[in-house]
Amino acid sequence: MGDQKKRHRILMVSDFFYPNFGGVENHIYYLSQCLLKLGHKVVVMTHAYGTRSGVRYMTGGLKVYYVPWKPFLMQNTLPTFYGTLPIIRTILIREKISLVHGHQAFSTLCHEALMHARTMGYKVVFTDHSLYGFADVGSIHMNKVLQFTLADVSQAICVSHTSKENTVLRSGLPPEKVFVIPNAVDTAMFKPAPQRPSGNEIIIIVISRLVYRKGADLLVEVIPEVCRLYPNVRFIVGGDGPKRVRLEEMREKHSLQDRVEMLGAVPHAQVRSVLISGHIFLNSSLTEAFCIAILEAASCGLLTVSTRVGGVPEVLPDDMIVLAEPDPDDMVQAIKKAISILPKIDPQIMHNRMKELYNWHDVAKRTEIVYDRALKCSNQNLLERLSRYLSCGAWAGKLFCLVMIIDFLLWRLLQMWQPAENIEEVPDFTISHDQD
């Protein structure tokens, strides 16, 4: 048993972290907090956000390195391949890290950190939070990058079974190396209102980034039709993005200013107060690996109407969600059905069920098992690892091998120039986690 409770020293790496808000950011934060409570050491590494750079501490003694790299595109740093090697090596040695955990296939920093960590002989785990296609140029390029990174990971985690299938297909990773651990929701933060919004009005809430992938174009078709069928339905739309203009044009065109309220971007701390003002939560995503927004809505006692895409059908029990195809007519039918079953919904019962179904402590314990397995993987020398990269394709395989050989040589040069014993190690300090 003593061996099983080994204390891990984990470095979480992603371009996506607070003060930016989203599913990946929340996942890293809550998972880190629960791992700290389980007695592990957790350090987060991300890029600088505006003036926020250097080392910061968050709740529970969570240490965050905001590396002074500026984001280049969509919160991602510019891919440098080797530019991040010195700083990643320093952090790994300073913090005496035993395992590196990278998040999100989009993240440049994640790919580079996993590559350097493997070169230095560290065990690495990767969590995929997204679904990708196989047809468009962006996806084909991304899948190749993922194949390169995952050719040498110790273990991988996906947030849904659909996401696992997608990752295995895209990266050629053996399925037995990929674990499914769902996201969770902080049910203490997302509680239903003491009283449901009264009156005969039915309020439908939409909170998402107003972009193509989140189905903003579907909303433009669905909202006027629902308003036409139900004079007592009102919509509250939270979120911002390039498609916001289309929604505002739709509102003008159909004269729905008094029935469609546009809130703009909603800070995460205020999401609950928006959710509890409604009865139904509408998710119109066109692709989704998991969808934390649905969990937050269900935890607040809202009945969900969602498109049947990606991992969404796995998220909630059938009596808490109405699924529809990503088609305007089908979504209108699903909203009709949801309105008819609304009287049977008890928000408090729904919240209590969510508490049992989704729990961050449970996610952390399951992740801990993956870490244990990763650390038991055999150590491989450079030649054994290069053979894995060679199998990635006739041209790509040779290119990947070249990238890794250069990385290895640069690491050796760094070791000669600045030996590990010259890097000061950080003294450990522990915070008591008695108060839950």
From TrEMBL:
It is an enzyme of class 2 (transferase). It comes from the Eukaryota. Residues 47-136 form the PIGA GPI anchor biosynthesis domain. Pathway: Glycolipid biosynthesis; glycosylphosphatidylinositol-anchor biosynthesis. CDD domains: GT4_PIG-A-like. The keyword Transferase applies. Residues 196-340 form the Glycosyl transferase family domain. Its EC number is 2.4.1.198. It holds the Pfam family PIGA. This is phosphatidylinositol N-acetylglucosaminyltransferase. It comes from Ziziphus jujuba. The gene is LOC107429062.
